[in-house]
Amino acid sequence: MQMSTTRLSALKRPLKKVRNFFKDPLPRDKELIFEDYELKFPDIIFTYRVGNQRYNSWVRFDLPIHQLSNLNRENHHPLFVNLGLAFAAGHFILSDFATIRCDCAKLNDQECALLEQRMMAALAEFRYLQGLDPSRPVAVLSSGKRALHPIPFAHAEEKALMLNGGGKDSCVSAELLKGIGLPFAWLSAHPNPIRLRVIDRSGNPEKYAFDFSLSEQAKTDAVYPWGAEPYLQVITAASLIISYLTGFKYLVTGAEHSADDSNLIYKGVEVNHQSGKTSTFENFFNTFIQNSVLQEAKLFSIARPFTDFRLGEMFSHFPQYFDAFFSCNMGMGKNKWCNNCHKCAFTYMALYPFFEQQTLINIFGQDLFKIPTIRKYMIELTTATIKPWECVGTLDECKLALRYCLKKSPNMEFNEWPRRSDLEKSCHDIQEQTVHEHVMSTFHTPHNIPGPIEQPLRDLASSLRKKSIQRWPEIIQS
User: Fold this and answer.
1) 477 — pLDDT class (breaks 50, 70, 90)
2) Which helix (H) or strand (E) holds 444?
3) What is the pLDDT of residues 410-419, one digit of tens each?
4) How far apart are CA 244 and CA 323, in angstroms?
5) pLDDT (tens digit, 9 = 90+) per residue, 25-64?
């Protein structure tokens, strides 16, 4: 049997350690300094420094200048510092820094401790895959003079900005918000045709957008071929500025319960490809924001109580999105499913039990079960000791999804490896009823769903569940 791609990545670590010894020599005691920011609306420019070299990253808001001009350094300093700090992890392509220093704000001990914990989590995947030590501490220091005090947010309204990634989680989350009656507008980072199409199909036209980029010079000077992606950290921090300007109290994501499942534990550190989607990140964000940045604002995921596989089931009830959504990172630039990655394999497994065959072919371009590489990825998803480095479900979710796929198509067979018997073997060792209850029927905790909307959300989820059982009684248990 071929070696799994996840196992192969682990075996490359010793070779990368040797490379790192020459490209980023020990003791790796460099300091990354967040110097300052500049308001040049519609842009905000953030300056970092390493030694004598400066690096400028930016965020560009798609808002009228007169609206952005309501922001200023005197009254809104914490919003800008928070956004600037969110870029820090991305600069570790330059070196595995020992310290991060904030020169433009005075951070207290609690703020530094929170940021240190967040930085460790954000860097864990990058460090592990680049042959570095995820357990190495990162010190966050401060030499600025102006402390952070949370800005009053008296104009906050009971409405939400829905972060739009263009995938099935965004589509389902929008329908959940509509179903419980929480008003929302869409918020897209790097708006592209896929995300705009999702907005159009939702029937909810109010939308906001922004772009951002890590310093091009940092990418040029990088000693590591790729770095930590502070994608969601930057998105949530930038979204907070739009939230403040437009009066939206809530920032809402579609991060599912499955995102809390780490890829592996290394030296006692959780290494999680979905670090920015976890409930731990939500808790950090809310604690830091409410104590130091913006009163009343709150981040939560409307999909947090549900698994990724269950979102696939829920998604089957919203056909308006079937030809609009897109979830393949490899094919993002071409707006086409690559049909050659773990993400495609998992998404196909998660949808297959609940979709008509022709609908899936219309979405993916072909029946992915006919592709041997996809079947191999399915086996890896259901057996790997190291979870693939993609946004996919847990081991139990994958096993249950594959079992339901095989149950739906009892005569499906293949004339080359992996065969049906190989797929059956990879998912035979679960207690189906127990796993089904946990994966498909449980309203999971922890979550940060506001109290007044929790019961309406539970009721809506139960209603969708009943519809699924009626539609697919031979697949889904009551």
Assistant:
1) low
2) none
3) 999 999 999 9
4) 34
5) 999 999 999 999 999 999 999 999 999 999 999 999 999 9
The rounded distance, in Å, linking the Cα atoms of 111 and 288 is: 7
Question: What is the structure's pLDDT at 311?
Answer: 97
Is the peptide bond between 418 and the residue preceding it cis, with omega within 30 degrees of 0?
yes
Distance of CA 271 to the CA centre of its chain: 14
- The helix (H) or strand (E) run that includes residue 39 is strand 31-40
Question: Is the predicted pLDDT of residue 347 greater than 70, yes or no?
Answer: yes
Amino acid at residue number 233: Q
Whole-angstrom distance, CA of residue 139 vs CA of residue 133? 15
Q: How far apart are CA 282 and CA 250, in angstroms?
A: 12
H or E stretch at 61: strand 53-61
Give the strand pairing for 264-266 and 139-142. unpaired
Q: Rounded CA gap, 417 and 179, in Å? A: 44
* 158-173 as b/e: b if 16+ CB within 10 A: ebbbbbbbbbbbbbbb
The distance in angstroms from the start CA to the end CA of the chain is: 38
Nearest alpha carbon to residue 148 among 70, 84, 216: 84
70-103 pLDDT per residue, tens: 999 999 999 999 999 999 999 999 999 999 999 9
Say whether 15 sits in a helix, a strand or coil.
helix
Residue 315 and residue 171 in contact, taking contact as beta carbons nearer than 8 Å? yes
Report strand pairing: 157-163 vs 184-189: parallel
The answer to whether 215 touches 126, Cβ cutoff 8 Å, is no
CA angle 435, 436, 442 (to 5 degrees): 100
Identify the residue whose tokens are 């595995």: 96
CA distance 121 to 276: 9
Q: How far apart are CA 310 and CA 477, in angstroms?
A: 13
Q: What is the structure's pLDDT at 8?
A: 54
**90-104, 300-314, 461-475: least confident range:** 461-475
Residue 15 has pLDDT above 80, yes or no: yes
Instruction: Quote the pLDDT of residue 398.
Output: 97
285 within 8 A of 163, measured Cβ to Cβ: no
d(CA 464, CA 478): 12
| Model pLDDT for residues 221-270, shown as the tens digit of each residue | 999 988 877 789 999 999 999 999 999 999 999 999 999 999 999 999 99
Q: Taking a C-beta distance cutoff of 8 angstroms, is the pair 369, 383 a contact?
A: no
Taking the C-alpha atoms of residue 310 and residue 397, their distance in angstroms, rounded to an integer, is 9
265: left (phi over 0), alpha (psi -120 to 50) or beta: beta
* Residue whose pair of structure tokens reads 């969110």 in the numeric block: 86
Distance CA 43, CA 53 (A): 22
Cis peptide before 27 (omega within 30 of 0): yes
Which backbone phi and psi does 212 adopt, to 5 degrees?
A: -155, 160
